[in-house]
Design a protein that fits this description.
There is one protein chain. It contains eight helices and five strands, in the order αββαααβββαααα. With 317 residues, the chain is mainly alpha-helical. The protein has a single domain, classed as di-copper center containing domain from catechol oxidase (Orthogonal Bundle). α1 crosses α6 and α1 packs across α8.
């Protein structure tokens, strides 16, 4: 079987996820009959604001890695009993054992919330938005190995380390070959890793890791939406900063599913990456200027999102 990832490690990463957010937001509007509803973003740049969602009355707190809260204590996760060795070495959880289906997040609270120095900072966000090239050869996690990173690759969270991993870099994967050098994690990837396992060296058994560390399972955690709304705001800020020279790369080396005029699947109606590569006002929403504000998600808006999402899932699924 030849599997293609249309959403990650490629030029279409930001636009694919933008389409996902728009689709999800629209479904909530339909199910709640509230067409003014907008998805809020989670600004994890500010250390004092990172814990704002981790309360029982919001997205739940982690107790021994299991999410406990007013709405999510009995929240179950999707499972894959047989992955056929394609991506994951063992099942994400065993669907025959109910205790394995609970929502898991932050198995190591110290690394997850308070004491992890790897949380993305305001300077990380500014550095990404100031990168001139949207994407570049080879249009994957190894962009510009000997030169400078691209905005897409840096924001998605891959930074090539030509000199290898530093000793204290727990988010770095050592080089595999001359064409696959060492890569450390930033921004988008870092948040997924912290919420899932703490760091790449974490020894927590796979079945007890938080779902955010697993690509296929990460949308099980409602915080996935808030996190990606923040990533979309980064895309919006980059687009506005570069609006005079804005273009989506048109190159044969971009892999299938990520090319300029490829449709973003599996969402309906059909839009191409080129169509999603535009300012957010074309899609009916706005993002703040991340250079001038540390604006954070509001509790009241968060709670509305939670209730709406629960209503959507219970109604549709």
């Amino acid at each position: 079987m030849n599997l293609v990832d249309y959403a990650h490690e490629g030029t279409g990463f930001p636009t694919w996820h933008r389409q996902l957010l728009l689709w999800f937001e629209r479904e909530i509007q339909v199910q709640t009959k509230n067409h003014t509803f907008r998805l809020p973003y989670w600004d994890w740049r500010d250390p004092s604001q990172r814990e704002i969602l981790f309360k029982k009355e919001r997205l739940g707190e982690s107790v021994d890695g299991v999410v406990i809260g007013d709405l999510f204590t009995n929240w179950t996760t999707s499972c894959w009993e047989d992955t056929k060795g394609i991506e994951y070495p063992i099942p994400i959880c065993n669907p025959t054992i109910s205790s394995n289906q609970v929502l898991r997040r932050c198995p190591n609270p110290k690394l997850c919330i308070k004491e992890n120095p790897n949380w993305p900072s305001a300077s990380d966000v500014n550095e990404a938005i100031n990168i001139e090239d949207y994407d570049a050869i080879a249009f994957d996690r190894y962009v510009n190995q000997s030169k400078k990173p691209s905005f897409r690759n840096f924001m998605e969270g891959f930074v090539v380390k030509s000199d290898g991993c530093e000793e204290d870099d727990t988010l770095c994967t050592p080089a595999k070959s001359s064409s696959m050098p060492a890569v450390t994690r930033k921004l988008h990837n870092t948040v997924h890793i912290i919420l899932g396992v703490g760091d790449l060296e974490c020894s927590i058994a796979f079945e007890y890791q938080g779902v955010m560390s697993c690509v296929a399972a990460s949308p099980n955690d409602p915080i996935f939406i808030n996190h990606h709304a923040m990533i979309d705001c980064m895309l919006e800020n980059w687009i506005k900063k570069n609006k005079d020279i804005l273009y989506y790369p048109l190159c044969e080396q971009i892999r299938e599913g990520h090319r300029k005029y490829d449709y973003i699947v599996p969402f309906m109606p059909l839009y191409t990456h080129h169509q999603m590569f535009n300012t957010s006002d074309n899609f009916g929403y706005e993002c703040p200027d991340l250079f001038s504000t540390q604006a954070t998600i509001k509790a009241s808006t968060t709670f509305v999102m939670i209730v709406a999402a629960v209503a959507l899932i219970m109604t549709v699924f």
